[in-house]
């Protein structure tokens, strides 16, 4: 089976002239002319990026999803290829209704008519991993039922193995292959696919995002009905709205389009900086607009998370960009460990300024974040800046936001929209409110550690009588004094905060 799949991949790659990626440079360059003479019948008049996109579409949905992910790695691939791969659409024919009913019967160990009051056999959406049907629960609640494609797991495992082999060959045969780190990309892609194959995990993602935006005037997230969820079936509240890409219909529904665009930016920054948890697949097919003007999100298979440290450095970078403080941008990269400690901050600052300065004071329609990101990644490579894996999904989401914003309101001023939000968030982090919040967060840990200190000291002394006891005892005494001073400082800060709140 694998050998036939491999032969198909080779056939498709040859048909679209992908061999040119390997034979125009490097050790296989001598094969270029003979192959062109022997394949004079091939029409290779299309650009290389378009031919690669067509080849991935011909290979099937898993390769399409891989191409979609690869399009976000502008730090790895040329921008002309990234732009073309971004056009890939994850659309596949649905599997039959009889198969869907059979899956549900087996999953629930009961007939569908017993589980649901009404079940619509025709799916309303179909993608590479799952398809969605509408249904009604016995209490009259209208729901959407997401069903995993049968037999998709072994197909994905098989294709991932082939991708890994192909990535290994690319790294060996293409001069730029090693720099592209394609095997790393394949590994990252496989991890995200594993998440999408477990619909219980997607349901938990949906539930978490809903909790974060419960009663929000910005975003509606459907409710999950846990009693009906399984690893291969997810049941959630049915939501209805207009696809966000249907701008004319939104205008006919009296939706304020410029306000909608600004809301999209606010939702993005709220997810990233308030929650550190964000929807990482915000393409137009997954975003709708309700009658009340709120965004509606669906498809929660891919979510991104950020630590408090990541959020802090990101906020510093964004604010510094908005203020055109490129020295602070460069310094923040060094402080975060993203750039080597020996980096010349002044040189890094100059390089960043050359990329970013031309884009300010321009409306969104005149700015391509994709191109800016590509230029920033080129600058990053020049200064040996490491691409942070946890930020890859954020980059992907930012590009999605760019596309949404451009479709809704080309005159949207992203800088003016985002800057107040970030300034307010930073003031909460570094001001008295932020200090109070951090003290309250750490107080339970201190309450546990301090009472245990004498006992821990006793055990340490008992275990180390003959191992530099005097030195260890001296260090412990010094540490105890330091802890006591720290405790005094904490008490003073708490008293100051209480007084400040009373005064306020």
Automatic annotation (TrEMBL):
**Is Coiled coil there in the keyword field?**
yes
Q: Which PANTHER family match?
A: CHAPERONE-ACTIVITY OF BC1 COMPLEX CABC1 -RELATED (PTHR10566), PROTEIN ACTIVITY OF BC1 COMPLEX KINASE 7, CHLOROPLASTIC (PTHR10566:SF113)
- One Pfam family of this protein, by short name? ABC1
Q: Name one GO molecular function term.
A: ATP binding
Q: Which SUPFAM superfamilies match?
A: Protein kinase-like (PK-like)
ABC1 atypical kinase-like domain residues are: 87-332
Residues that span the membrane, as ranges = 486-503
| Family note | Belongs to the protein kinase superfamily. ADCK protein kinase family.
A biological process (GO) of this protein is: ubiquinone biosynthetic process
Q: Kindly provide the name given to this protein in its UniProt entry.
A: 2-octaprenylphenol hydroxylase
Q: Known Gene3D superfamilies for this protein?
A: Transferase(Phosphotransferase) domain 1
Q: In which pathway does it act?
A: Cofactor biosynthesis; ubiquinone biosynthesis [regulation]
Q: Which organism is it from?
A: Nitrosomonas marina
| Coiled-coil regions, chain positions | 459-486
Alphabetized UniProt keyword annotations: ATP-binding, Cell inner membrane, Cell membrane, Coiled coil, Kinase, Membrane, Nucleotide-binding, Transferase, Transmembrane, Transmembrane helix, Ubiquinone biosynthesis
